[in-house]
Amino acid sequence: MPDLRVAVDAGGTFTDVCIYNSSTQDFRVTKVPSTPNNPMQAVLNGVKRGEIELADVELFFHGTTVATNALITRRFPKAALVTTKGFRDVIEIRDGTKDNLWDAYADVSGPYIRRRDRFEVTERVDYAGHIVTPLDEQEARELARKLKRRGATTIAVCFINSYANVHNEQRMREILEEEIPGANVSTSSEILPEIFEHDRFNTAVANTVLGPLVSDYVKQLDDELSAGGYANDLLLLHSGGGSMTPAMAKHFPVRLAASGIAAGAIAAKHIAEQCGYKNAVGLDMGGTSTDISLIHDGELRVTKQWGVEYGHPIVFPSIEVLTIGAGGGSLAHIDIAGALRNGPQSAGADPGPACYERGGTEPTNTDANLALNRLGTSLAGGALTLNREKSIQAIDEKVGQGLALSTAEAAQAILKVANANMADAVRLVSIRRGLDPRDFALIAFGGAGALHGAEVARELGIPAVIVPPSPGVTSAMGCLLVDIQHDLSMMYTAGAADADIDDLNGQFRSLEDEAADRLRHEGVADEDVVLQRGISMRYQGQWRSLQVSMGSGDEPLKEAIELFHQEHERQFSFRQDTQPVEIYQLHLRAVGKTPKPTFAPYERAANLLAEPHARRDVFFDDKWHDTPIFDRDTLPVGFELTGPAIIDQLDSTTVVPPGAVASIDEWKNIRIQIAQAGEEA
Amino acid sequence: MGHDKKDGTLDPVTFEVLKNAFATSVDLMSEQILRTCYSFVIYSRDFSSALCDAQGNTVMQGSGDIAVHVGTLHFQCKAVLEEFQGDIQPGDVFAINDPYRGGTHLNDVSFIRPIFVDNDIIGFAQNKGHWADIGGNVPGSFDVNASTHFSEGLRITPVRVWRSGVFLHDVAQLLVSNTRAPSQAMGDLKAQAEATAVCEREVLRLVDKYSKETVVAAMQETQDYVERIVLKSLAGMPQGEWETVDYLDADPALGEGMVPIRIKLKLDGNGIHYDLSGSASAVSTFLNSGYGTTHSAIYAGTKTFFPDVPLNSGFYRAVTANIGEEGSVVNAGWPHAVTGFCSGPYEKIMNGIFELWSGIMPERAMACAFNLEYLLIGGNDGRTENTTYFMWYDWMAGGWGGARLRMARRRLLLCLAPAWQFSRWRVRSV
User: Fold this and answer.
1) Which of A69, A149, B167, B202 is the most exposed place for a label (fewest CB within 10 A)?
2) Cα dihedral angle (B9, B13, B15, B18), rounded to 10 degrees?
3) What is the pLDDT of residues B125-142, one digit of tens each?
4) How many domains does chain A have?
5) Under-70 pLDDT residues of chain B
6) B400 contacts A103? CB cut-off 8 A
7) A580 closest CA partner among A561, A559, A556
8) Domain boundary at A418, A445, A461, which?
9) Domain ranges of chain B
10) Interface mutation target, options A99, A333, A416, A578, chain B, most CBs of B under 10 Å
């Protein structure tokens, strides 16, 4: 009886492997270098390194950057777009905005399908779904033949207003399939049947260009795993926080585009739940950037405004993760007007921080942590030795002298700016009225999260920090924690007060039928299917809508309307009860439950003593403190200490500032209770 | 090093943290208005947000705000101060759109909320957004034939819409009832006023944490800092005077004819100085620019060469302009029509500034940008029973002017194009 659940999270540098044994509840992790030229190799290497017998594997989860990388590098098979006459440049014109409004030399990147590969045909559907001009079949057929001559293998059909009537798009697809056997053809109305052509076209285009590439990769990997004895379907993590099988990945490859980022957020949610928090901020800080996620009321925030690059929206629900340019390698400098700045420029892996001695002369956050002795000179169990003198030199030369500060003061200043920037980013995504930071926990992970977590939390007024057992591979664990999930939506505009509830239910049922079909196709048993209805509403006349869940009582729509008012008030601090409410879209989340690991709590140790393996002076709050350095592996469950303290482990270092109380909980998380400013003992 | 100093002196960390927090406070305001607005023009990002100091000077402007509002928000805030100084209470919110007091055009309505600490005003939160209609001769309020403000719509001089937190329904109703989309306008009025509360809340949080004196000092230092950046950036650049002229093709009321806009630029080591006093008299249609938008064009054009410098009144101190006597096409006073400024003098001034600076900073050189054109269709929708007005805008998107590398690449492509096309043609004809 196979009893292993395996998650392989392939990142840019490392591929992390989590192995969970459902019989013994044993959990272990391992790491292999990623192989960007042949991503599958790293997955197989990870399986080998983890000594996994594939025949023993019950479920195999995989997070991949294959789709993300293809979108960034624009390495696609020969693709084409077929659109309504007059709409060839929709994906090039976009919405006319730029991410850097003022820099005329910073262009928005080009569309996923170049102009020469975009073609128009005669057809027109109006806003209400009436066919104004039927598809010109002769023209369509000639175009199909032309595309065949040009060798197009993957084609997006994106017609104006197709969300209101799919007929012309479907007819075009039939013609293309007849003329180009074997081509991958998809229509915008099946990918995303929603209003606003730029969003819909671009989502369909991104999906189309990724199609062959992702299905090839997934199929190869699936075959390899099957050949090795894995009997189930490969489960691929998607950006919505669920997984899907190869059969569905083939149809919706673009949903894999945030696969890796979602994993960290899901792991943060799990840890928060484990520790009894319904509200939490995930702070996943690495070498060059930090991913911030938000859990509110037990749910990850989901957004439909997402894309791999600015200007190219991918309008599938995605877990909202804000990535900012603040990491261990972020550079601090004094600008021409004398202000101390931190990031977003990064020293990256090469030259890296000054202390790496690879030629870097500018101070990074890592250098500041080292200069303050928060970080030791020996990392990763001695595999990496850092030169503290180089850090001090860089800080003195580039920051200290300019501001007339001692090394320690300058290093502390660098970190304060970095931490405040991260706190600002958290505020921007999350802390709206109604979300009180005192109800939150901060989950600090990634290589550098635990170094900064306590001070970021203090900056935000968050009282608790949780550092999971293996901060460096926490993301991979997220892959083990997902269900199979599909998110469907449709346009439905009507006044909420006088909506025809029977019609509404009928529409929901048609979405449910489609979802059930998909799940059945993926081999999900009926009893494992959970369907959740959602509805987007707005005050009549507003442009944006808010999604709330459909009620479950006798009057589900009434409940939803009240939820909408509440949500509007929570997010924007006002509600308008006398304003008519309008329904905008219907949503369906279809979940196929997969078994989750259960982690048995560790027993409180009989002996709660632990000795520091070293002591050194560490700089906190303007002065040096004699600080004990602990090895995390030696800390028993139930152990408690009062900062200052440094807790070292193989893949991370946890900083416990003076006055903060750290303890090891029954899941072997480090929990830090933050003393707020003014409360220090 | 601590941030608990109450005397208003700033250490570098506190300054950097507060400067970034001010930016967050205005970006939060923008984020909220984008999600709650009713006007499709605001939805298309035609809005801006600013935090102003107690004198009305801009401390920080939103990073993604529309260019044509840049450098006008402090004028609007100062106009409110001039009218109501001494009579401003906590919980008040004021509206203004007056293009003759530094505004843009009548559609752009600002909401301004004082931020109080201990009975003192320490600043103002402002949100400006483009309402779909503001009355006048035509739906959407862009009347190309307008010669005076009366054809363009409702002129809102500074007016109180909330008094000590109490909504003045009668005033609000008067404002929105003069538009063709009163319920939308009411929605935007409330959404904009609520958005300014977001900024107020953030600034009060900062005061709580860092003290009133520190926050007020940081508001001033943020302006000084920007002024310093501009002045330092000029060091090493040539000093001297340059001039250029660009033209509106015509005064639509008079037919063909070039309407000159003359721009002189002087760099003397003490800042950037412009002189537009040689420009033509006001035209008889809506293609005039008030003093607010002329300054805005000057700041926006200059900012394009300093893309990383934050926008606030420090920038406006380092960049000065003599726009000449009132009555010209670049300093049109009441009652000249000005709604079309954005397709007229605004882009001519920007293009002229691009030309001047392209010579001084060839590494950022840029040719003329596209002409802003738009189609505005409006009227009655005959398909509905209770016939209501509709306004439908379409902006013709265009690009910035050609830049150095891109031009070079384009030329190369032009040379290659015939050969490439020929080869494709041959392949296909086989």
Assistant:
1) A149
2) -120
3) 999 999 999 999 999 999
4) 4
5) 1-9, 387, 405-430
6) no
7) A561
8) A418
9) 12-227, 233-403, 404-430
10) A416
